[in-house]
Amino acid sequence: MNWGGVVSFFASEHAMRSERVLQRAGLSARLVPGPREVSPNCGVAVAFLWEDEPDVARLLGESKIRYEAIHRYALDAEGQATGSFQQSTAREP
Amino acid sequence: MIGEVYLDHAATSWPKPPVVLESILNFLETAGGNVGRSGHRRSIASSRAVSLAREQLADLLVAESPDELIFTKNATEALNLAISGMAVDGVRIVTTSLEHNSVMRPLRGLEQRGACTVEVVATDGNTGEIDLDEWAARLRAPGDCFAVATHASNVTGVLLPIAEMAAIAREAGRHLIVDASQSAGHVPLSLTALGAAAVAMPGHKGLLGPSGTGLLYLAPGVEIEPLLRGGTGSLSESEYQPDFAPDRYESGTPNMTGIVALGAAAQFLHETGLDLIHARATALGRHFRDALADVPGITMQGPVDPDRSVGIASVTIDGIPCSTAARMLDDEWGVMTRAGLHCAPAAHRSLGTAPEGTLRLSWGMETTEQDLDTAVEGLRVIAERARAAASRAIA
Hints:
The complex is a heterodimer. Chain A is an alpha+beta fold. Chain A has helices spanning 12-24, 53-63; strands spanning 3-8, 29-33, 44-48, 69-75, 87-91. Chain B has 2 domains: 5-15 and 273-394, Aspartate Aminotransferase, domain 1, CATH 3.90.1150.10; 18-272, Type I PLP-dependent aspartate aminotransferase-like (Major domain) (Aspartate Aminotransferase, domain 2, 3-Layer(aba) Sandwich), CATH 3.40.640.10. Chain B is 41% helix and 15% strand. In chain B, the strands form 3 sheets. A 7-stranded mixed beta sheet of chain B has the order 2-8-7-6-5-3-4, with helices on both faces. Chains A and B meet through α1 and β2 of A and α2 of B.
């Protein structure tokens, strides 16, 4: 599985909660070490499949979890970067 | 060979549910890294476990978001965080006469430094009645002000009309800090519906977690000064404290093992049902009151109505110090109670039981009617002995 996106957070508590929220909704989601160019704020990020990006943004919004930004970012199955950082999309409202 | 009857749940609950013990072992075996600090598997396992515990507690206590729950080491730390975090110079702090020293000492400490004035509204330790007009008038008076009130007396177990008190505080635009040390886990409690600015509680009493755990609830939009500043695992490049909860209030490595076990306890309580737990405690309260009614020489110090209380009763015995009675109950009947002032001198003054104090019996989920009968039998014999000794002294 090649993850296509990551969510960055200010606090790891929020990353943990986001992983649970996304997985409970049936999405593929996994905690990964936070890529440096994505965010220096919190040690971990949540990787997801890029095609799920609209659902990810909606679920995080509905659950009122504080996140920093959603990024398009290529990672391999183990959460390691396979390409360069591409773009940041939806920031937390 | 005497058995064991544990009637000191108001000090700390025992035994803990098996899931609590299992969760401690499981956490130390399968996780054990530092929460929110590193990206390796054991750190992440710990972060997941602590986050899940916060969610389990938010579900039990009906918080809108787990971010509203701050982990502390006990209710005392939670109360100190809330009180010192809200105190601005010259503030008036309104409270009740049934407070524990975990409220009164922080207030008196601020008062001694000239940082605040303290106003105590008289509250009946037997009925929980408080003059709500006076409560309202003091909260509506001009100037900076906030309030602190206990939900249930730790001496008599009586419940105060905390929902009404919180509504008055809200209408007056004042923050109310509730000390839920004796009510959390014992009575149905919705933090969201209560509408207080802050609620402090221990993890090791009614919530059935291990010692070294406590919680402070801060309502949405309530931001206070932190008690401790330091590492949080977040915003590491900044030398300033994060401005978001829970990290703003949780510096330093927390009691991860205790928190995870507290989460397991919260789930257990949620599945059992707090309404059921409270109904059982009040049934035991009625049983105790009825069994004690025809025992001469014992005075029940409250509460008047077991339905408006948690599982606590305080008694005095004619002619014998309560500390002696407590020792006899433990030695001869295996009944464990607590004698004295229970860190609440003002409450005892209002009951007329200072400075001697009372013998406090407090029960929990595992307590049976037979346990209370054993305690009543012990009290009956001790009261008889005191009467016999008094008769000999007169003769």
